[in-house]
Design a protein that fits this description.
With 126 residues, the chain is an alpha+beta fold. 38% of the residues lie in helices and 35% in strands. It has one domain. A 6-stranded antiparallel β-sheet has the order 4-3-2-1-5-6, covered by helices on one side. The longest helix is centred in the N-terminal third of the chain and has 23 residues. The radius of gyration is 18 Å and the shape is globular.
């Protein structure tokens, strides 16, 4: 019996720590629109989500509208840890460390399910 109580207690405690993180993170299915644009070495990368469930990913001249676009969008949102309280400087740091070391520009426009628009813009300064 004590073992079951210990497992149940551990599960309860894990939910208490995980749930707040899930609530604060961006949920695309509850969003109206998200567009992320990154420029690196003169090449533009663009991710776009439009409700309900339309995904697009562009890299330079290549446009992808398949399930690959959804995977790409989910990946960049996770990397950025995008939420209403996200800081552009922190997102730029992560991008430069993880994928885009010579990042030139970041622009994010997100309209959540309550029609609130959030915008982040960063340009490399010389």
């Amino acid at each position: 019996m004590k073992k079951k109580m210990t497992i149940a207690t551990a599960l309860l405690l894990s939910w208490l720590f995980v749930l707040p993180m899930q609530v604060s993170a961006l949920n695309l299915m509850e969003s109206f629109f998200l567009k992320i644009t990154i420029v690196e070495n003169g090449i533009e990368h663009e991710w776009e989500y439009t409700s309900p469930g339309k995904y697009e990913y562009e890299k330079g001249e290549q446009v992808i509208k398949t399930d690959e676009a959804k995977v790409e969008m989910q990946s960049i949102v996770k990397l950025l840890n995008l939420s209403e309280k996200a800081k552009v400087e922190e997102m730029v740091d992560v991008l430069q460390k993880e994928r885009y070391p010579t990042l030139e520009r970041l622009e994010i426009r997100w309209m959540n399910g309550e029609s609130k628009l959030y915008t982040w813009v960063w340009d490399k300064t010389n």
